[in-house]
Design a protein that fits this description.
381 residues; alpha/beta; Carbamate kinase; Archaeosine Trna-guanine Transglycosylase, Chain: A, domain 4; 8-stranded mixed β-sheet; 5-stranded mixed β-sheet; 39% helix
């Protein structure tokens, strides 16, 4: 049953709003939808007047930049995308500045790369910057740093970027404004029997299947990435809403009862360090473990070398690794005490033998329990 609309927004003190490029840019007329953005600024002003902090994660830089650069329609080359982003970021920042200044709201631009969220020091610095800006009354407008991101190393979509930001700053609510009003039992574009799902308490295999396979129109760059964002956000203790943002004043529309899908926040007792580990998008490598080690981890123990059966990837001491069961299921993330070369030498060996094998007195464990966090699997959900 749908929760009362007013409770969701009224109880949220820190809100991240993600805006898709299709909401901001009129592709047919090659122009910014300034009237829509002006209406959104009214919604944000209303939230701020209630004492809430609002952070915006906005797409649109590449779309605006390619218009100004005169690039043809269709897929851009990597260097064209990067150039478009460089041109469009200025236009995008100016558009937000113009829209919000009528409410005496100042905006600030932040560009993030994947490395900013994977590197613990950069993660903390970004978090502190965002929190400082909101405490001063600014509205941060965040986008992926597409001018330097490559096709191989990037967030890949702003849904997951928004979820990472929500996790970083301990947001209460992530609002994904899109061109669809939520999750359905199947692709509503292809099935007349598709049913809207208003409330998702846990993300199960059935929920992932409802989002569509990676090869479907519904899944590619669409609902699948939103489900991935929901996993990141909800496991960090942040609720998430998927709502249709195409009409003006989309936040007001939600308050007035417009249909949407709500993903309930999971209770999270994890400290900030473990929240960061749990949301890591790109582990540097993997450790496969046996059943005994898996049982030990579920009881809060550290990962010992004796329980590791295989090392995968090239990584350094201190990197984030995925810990996998014998069948390849990711069960945890953790910070390694050894690089991939030394880890490969000591797997399957007892801790007391590590010094003789490596020639120096290393750590008794490959990953300490304080640097390890369990990752919920769809089987467990």
């Amino acid at each position: 049953m749908q929760l009362p609309n007013h409770q969701i927004l009224e109880n949220a003190n820190k809100i991240v709003i993600k805006i898709g490029s299709s909401l901001l840019i009129d592709a047919q007329n090659s122009a910014l939808k300034q009237a829509w953005l002006n209406a959104l600024s009214q919604d944000v002003n209303s939230l701020i007047s209630q004492g809430k902090q609002v952070i915006i994660v906005s797409s649109g830089a590449i779309g605006l930049g390619r218009i100004q650069a005169g690039f043809p329609s269709g897929k851009l080359k990597l260097e064209q995308s990067q150039a478009s982003a460089a041109i469009g970021q200025i236009a995008l920042a100016r558009a937000y500045e113009n829209a919000f200044k009528s409410h005496n709201i100042q905006v600030a631009q932040i560009l993030l790369s994947l490395e900013d969220s994977e590197n613990r020091k950069r993660y903390i610095n970004a978090t502190n910057t965002i929190n400082t800006l909101t405490s001063l009354g600014f509205v941060p407008v965040i986008n992926e740093n597409d001018t330097i991101a490559t096709s191989e190393i990037r967030f890949g979509d702003n849904d997951r970027l928004a979820a990472r930001v929500a996790s970083m700053i301990n947001a209460d609510l992530l609002l994904l404004l899109s061109d669809i009003d939520g999750l359905y039992s199947e692709n509503p574009q292809k099935s007349g029997s598709a049913k809207h799902i208003p409330l998702i308490k846990t993300i199960t295999k059935q929920i992932i299947q409802a989002a569509g396979s990676s090869g479907s129109d519904y899944g590619t760059g669409g609902m699948i990435t939103k489900i991935m964002a929901a996993q990141i956000a909800t496991e960090s203790g942040c609720s998430m809403i998927i709502a249709d943002g195409r009409e003006n004043n989309p936040v007001k529309a939600i308050l007035n009862g417009k249909q949407y899908s709500l993903f309930s926040a999971q209770k999270s007792g994890n400290p900030a360090r473990k929240k960061w580990l749990n949301a890591t998008l790109e582990p540097k490598g993997s450790l496969y473990i046996d059943q005994g080690a898996q049982n030990a981890l579920t009881h809060g123990k550290s990962l010992l070398s004796a329980g590791v059966t295989k090392v995968e990837g090239k990584f350094d001491n201190g990197d984030t690794l995925a810990i996998k069961s014998a069948n390849g299921q990711i069960i945890a993330h953790g910070l390694t005490n050894y690089d991939s070369k030394d880890a490969g030498l000591i797997i399957g060996k007892k801790s007391q033998d590590i010094a003789d094998i490596l020639g120096y007195a290393g750590r008794a464990n490959i990953i300490h329990r304080n640097n390890l966090v369990h990752v919920q699997t769809t089987e467990e959900a």
